[in-house]
Design goal:
single chain; about 100 residues; alpha+beta; Translation Initiation Factor IF3; about 20% helix; globular; Sulfurtransferase TusA family protein; TusA-like_sf; TusA-like
Length: about 100
């Protein structure tokens, strides 16, 4: 099911975002380098409430399980998994938009 755009909303912009803002801008970044499963997801769960709905939390992790765990956690909790960026140092930045 698709929804129509609100009059003040532009394509690619989700609910709770201000027009003209970068929809992938990170409001909070959690440095979880060196933590092993399930610690990165636990940190995300502890801190996702620190940002407003529609804002993005990034989890930076070196644990390969985080690449699977963070998107799965988003599906279970109703948040939006935005995507991942390889940082080139063995870490990945996983971005989550708070519902």
């Amino acid at each position: 099911m698709t929804r129509g755009l609100d009059p003040d909303e532009t394509p690619g912009q989700g609910p709770g975002q201000v027009p003209g803002e970068d929809p992938t801008a990170v409001a909070l970044e959690l440095d979880c380098r060196g933590m092993v499963c399930p610690a990165p997801v636990i940190e995300l769960a502890r801190h996702v409430g620190d940002v407003a709905p529609g804002e993005v939390v990034a989890v930076v992790a070196t644990d390969v399980a985080a690449r699977v765990d963070v998107p799965a956690w988003c599906r279970m909790r109703g948040h939006h998994y935005v995507g991942a960026d390889d940082l080139g140092d063995g870490a990945v930045r996983l971005r989550v938009r708070r519902a």
